[in-house]
Amino acid sequence: MVKFLLKKSYQHNDLKEVEFKDLWNDEGVFTTMWIYGKPAKILFLKSHLNNLIKSLKIYKILKKDTKSKILRLLKINIDSKKKYNHLLRIALNKNLISISLRKKIKLSNKFSLKLINYQRVKPEHKNLKYKFILKNLSKLDVSKKDIALCVNGKILETGTSNILFVSENRIYSPINKYYRGNNLKFFEKNFKIYKKNIFVKDLKIFDEIILVGSGKSVISVTKIDNNKWKRKSIKIFKKLSNKFKKESKKNIYLYK
Question: Would you tell me which of 20, 102, 178, 239 could form a disulfide with 7, CB atoms 3.0–4.6 Å apart?
Answer without folding.
Answer: 20
